[in-house]
Amino acid sequence: MTPPTLVSDFRQSPSLRSRRLDSVIDDDIRYRAVDSRDSRFDGVFFTAVTTTGIYCRPSCPAVTPKRVNCRFYPSAAAAQGAGFRACRRCRPDSVPGSPEWNHRADLVGRAMRLIGDGLVDREGVAGLAGRLGYSARQLQRQLTAELGAGPIALARARRAQTARLLLQTTELPVTDVAFAAGFASVRQFNDTVREVYDRTPSGLRAEVAAGRRTSTPAGGLQLRLAYRGALDADHLIDFLALRAVPGVEEVVPGARPGVRTYRRTLALPYGHGIAEVDGLAPGEPRTRGWLDCRLLLADLRDLPTAVQRLRVLFDLDADPDTVDEQLGADPVLGPLVRERPGLRSPGHVDPHELAVRAVLGQQITVGAARTLAGRLAEKYGTALPEPSGGLRLLFPTAAALAAAEPEDFAMPAARRRALTGLCAALAEGAVRLDSGVDREEAAERLLALPGIGPWTVGYLRMRALGDPDVFLPSDVGVKHGLVRLGAPGDPKSAARAAESWAPWRSYAVHRLWAGPANSASNTTSSGTSTTSTGTETDAA
Fold it and tell me: What gap in Å lies between CA 437 and CA 429, rounded to an integer?
C-alpha cells in the first residue's frame, strides 16, 4: 500500500490542502498507488502504458507495468488525446469523478461540473465560456494546462462513456445510441468509439451477453453508480426520506430484502425522467463500490445529465477517506466518524427546487414544509404523462411559482414575499445556482434579496452549490448535536470548534444532524436556526 505518511501529510496539512492535488502527488507516488492497486486514486489520475497503448484506473487488476513504461494523466480525455485506448478489463471511464472537480471553486472546477452536466453538448464551448465569464480561448488554456485536454475533448470522452453504457446495457439500435450519447453524426460516433475503445460499436456491444441488456424505454436503463471508499447509505436514504415531497419523491422497499429505494422525478434538458436508486442491504459492506440505479427517460439524450445529477445528490464523487481521516481525529466528532464511516453531504438534482424548499421551511417543521411543498407541486407542478407508483409530478419551476397566486402560499406575508422574490430572481437569471456559478457571487446576490438570510445562503451553498466547507453555527440541530456530544452548543463556541474541521465543515454539519447510528435523532433532527432574518428550519 502507499505509505500512510505520503497520503496523510496531504490530507492533514492545511497548506497542502490549499494547493492543487497534482502538485502534491508526484509520479513516484502515483506509481506506488498503481503498484498497490489503491482504489482511492481511481478518477484522480489515469495510468497509460506505452508498451500496450492502453490506459487504466490505478486499481486495475492487471499485472503492474514497469515504471519506465508508465505515463500519468489527470483525465481520461488527456490519455485519449495522447493516443491511448481504454482498458477493457478495468473500464477506467466508469470510475467515480475526481473529488477535486467535485469541490473546487475555481474556473477549472466550475468548468468540469458544467461539462459533466452536459452543457458543452447543449450550448457548445461558447456557451460554457459564457456561463463561466471567460473567453473560449482563456477557458481552453486553463483546462489544457491542468487536465491535458480542452472542453471539446473532455465532452467527447464523456460522450464515449455514455455510448459504451448504452451499447452494453440496452438493445437500442446503434444509430439511436450515437445520437442519444450526444454525437453529431454516426460517422463521428464510429470514429470516436474505435479510437477510445479499439472496437467498433458492434464489437463493443458483443462483449456483453445479450441477456444482460435491457429493452428501452419500457424497461428503462439499469446501471451502477460507482463510489470510492465507504458509503453510509442509511444516512442518505433517511435524509431524503424525511424530506420527500409527495408526488415528486418517495422511499419504498427495494427488490432485494432489507433494501430501501429512493425514487423521484427529474426535470431534464430534453424531457422528464424517473430515477430509482437502491440503498445497501443490511450487513452489506459499505465499501461495496456502487449503488444500483434505474432510469426511465423520455429522451435518452438526458442520460449523462441524469446520472451526473444523481451523483451530486448522493455525493458519490467525494473522497470519504480524506474527510473521515481529518474529522475522525477531532475529539468531538471522532466517535461519530468511527461509528459511521462514509457519511456524505447530499447535494440536489435541481438547485431551484432546493432554493424554494429552503424558504418554504423557514419557521415551520420538516413535516409541515414537506406538506406545503406537496401542495404547491399539486397546484403548479407538471403532471407526468403516466404516474409511476407514488410519483406523479415534476416540481414547479421558479417561473411558475413567481407568478403563483398569493393565497396559495400558506405562510406569513414576509416569507411569501421572500419566496416569490427568490423565484423571480431565479427565473430571470438575476441569481444563478447552477454547478458552474461562482459561490461567493451567488451568496452575495442571495443575501441581497429580501427575507434571505445567512442560514438559507449557507444551506444552499452546502447542497445546491456543493460547497464542502459550510458551517451553520446558529442551527439548532447543530447545537443539539454538539450538546449531545458534551461540547458547548452556543454559536460562538460552535464556530470556534468548527475551525479545525475546515475544509470539510459541511460533512461535520451532517454528522451533527445525524448523530450516532440508530439514534432517534436520525429521523427527527430538523436543524432549526436563528438568523438575522428570523428562525429558519432545515426542511428542504
Answer: 12
Query: What is the CATH superfamily name and number for domain 221-312?
Result: DNA-3-methyladenine glycosylase AlkA, N-terminal domain (3.30.310.20)
Q: Cα separations (Å) of 201 from 81, 85, 217?
A: 20, 14, 20
Return d(Cα 400, Cα 377) in angstroms, integer: 10
Q: Is 475 a catalytic residue?
A: yes
Is residue 90 part of the annotated active site? The answer reads no
**CATH code linked to domain 100-169+171-212:** 1.10.10.60
What's the length of the chain?
A: 540
pLDDT (tens digit per residue) in 105-128: 889 999 999 999 999 999 999 999
Among residues 234, 278, 467, 475, the one annotated as catalytic is 475
Taking alpha carbons only, the member of 47, 45, 32, 43 closest to residue 1 is 32
Q: Check 38, 56, 60, 293 and give the catalytic one.
A: 56
CATH 3.40.190.10 fits 4-93, yes or no: no
Which one, of 323, 310, 130, lies nearest residue 226 by Cα? 310
CB 307 within 8 A of CB 225: yes
Q: pLDDT class for 3, splitting at 50, 70, 90? A: very low
